[in-house]
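For consistency, the fold was encoded as tokens, as this record shows:
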Amino acid sequence: EADVLMVMSQDAFDDFKNQVKPGGVIIVDTDNVTRIDRPSVYEYPISKIARLETGRTITGSIVGLGLISKITGIITPDALRNAVKSRAPRGTVRINLDALEAGLATE
């Protein structure tokens, strides 16, 4: 069972929602997940945030990492920043850092 689940599609939510531990965290992209039949789900328009902040919805997963950090505290923002700097493909570091900061700043 997972402690944290972030899903970006309805299929992923339907397939994995029951694999989260009791008290675990589920974060959904409300741009793509519309049928939410579980209580205590964190709902954010992740794809929209990515599109508005970076111009690319593909950065939604990085927005989601920022949200995971903010909601759970499981990893520090600085650790995520360092990971993005060292792991993002060449030429994409800035856009990925912008996406991360958008997730961290989302209310």
Remarks:
- Strands lie at 2-7, 20-29, 41-44.
- The longest strand covers residues 20-29.
